Amino acid sequence: MHEFANAFVLFSNFVLIPSITYGSQLAIGALGITLVFSILRFANFAHGDTMAFGTMIAIFCTWGLQAVGFSLGPLPVALVALPVAIAVTIGLVLGTDKIIYRFYRNKKVDPIILVMASVGVMFMMNGLVRIFIGVGDVNFADGSRFIIRAREFREMTGLDEGLALRTTQVITVVVAVAVMAALFWFLQKTRTGKSLRAFSDNEDLALLSGIKPERVVQITWIIAATLATIAGVLYGLDKGFRPFTYFQLLLPMFAAAILGGIGQPIGAVVGGFVIAFSEVSLTYAYRRVFEYLGPEGFEVEGLAQLIQTEYKFAISFMLLVIVLLVRPTGIFKGRVL
Fold first, then answer.
1. Which residues, 6+ apart, have CB-to-CB distance to 239 below 8 Å?
2. Residue 247's closest CA among 157, 119, 105, 147?
3. What CA–CA distances, in Å, run from 224 to 145, 248, 315, 322, 330?
4. From residue 58, how far is each of 77, 89, 237, 275, 298 by CA, in Å?
């Protein structure tokens, strides 16, 4: 029993807790992607760099607050900077829509044209972020780093392995649950949310019902920018900020949205956790876990790792291809909210 407990703590430390945290971040990001695709009818490739831009604004605000001595005690100051970052990102996204996307919408171009326009916006945002904050790593998490430390856990339980639970991991899960609950309530219970769902389901019928398309577009971008900023800040607090990393997150977020069923918010959430658990569990080295579970004196040759960590993002690509081949509509089918 003692050995099993050690194995479980080790597994929780490096697979279970990181997967739940990473899955929460992917789920929020995938929700923004699926919302834009369902309502505006195109895949927004600028979503990852929108996350980077929002996180950059949060970092600048955090630095400003820290410079005047502001502190939240055990919590990161970035939580206070988050509303400002959301507001600035919403302004940028609405401005981008007004200058670029609206032009193509009015011409009723094919969705692929909007996709290519979003690629251009992606490079523009990526360039802005790199110009203002650089290309290096930025760690902007402050406050208390751990809720539970490994050494304290070992002393408390008498186990050989210690469980470490970071503050940013708990914040990520709590904020993610709150954001998802608020979004689902908004879509299901409010008049505006029902308008978005109606527009997504049947645009022509929604227009006949008196729903204003430009208002729907604005609300969609506001929600997408909010979700992108929250996901970006949570990811940055947990793993550090680097502009190119957010571009790399596009693949797992798109994979999550498609896996769950593009256009289905609940599918984006489920897909985010499936992708996260797949990436983390397949790249973890299980050697010590197997040695704890095996008979006394049992040793494992090598790392017992299914896929090397360098190929982490390839897992998302493989899952994406499999889903498109076997079940193109995703787990929850359809393309409606």
1. 245
2. 119
3. 29, 18, 26, 27, 21
4. 9, 10, 10, 27, 49
Q: What is the pLDDT of residues 255-313, one digit of tens each?
A: 999 998 888 889 999 999 999 999 999 999 898 888 888 777 677 777 788 888 888 87
Q: Give the span between the Cα atoms of 185 and 172, in whole angstroms.
A: 20
pLDDT in tens, 244-254: 889 889 999 99
Residues 6+ apart with CB under 8 A from 303: 285, 286, 287
Give the C-alpha separation, 13 to 7, whole Å: 10
Its CATH architecture, for the domain 2-326, is Orthogonal Bundle (1.10)
Q: ∠ CA 313-315-320 to the nearest 5 degrees?
A: 105
Give helix 17-40 / helix 213-239 axis angle, nearest 10°: 160
| Residue boundaries of the structural domains of the chain | 2-326
The secondary element (H helix, E strand) that includes residue 148 is strand 146-148
Distance CA 159, CA 146 (A): 19
If one counts every other C-beta atom within 10 angstroms of the C-beta of residue 325, the result is 8
- pTM tops 0.90: yes
Q: Please choose, from the candidates 295, 290, 305, the residue with its C-alpha nearest in 3D space to the C-alpha of residue 6.
A: 290
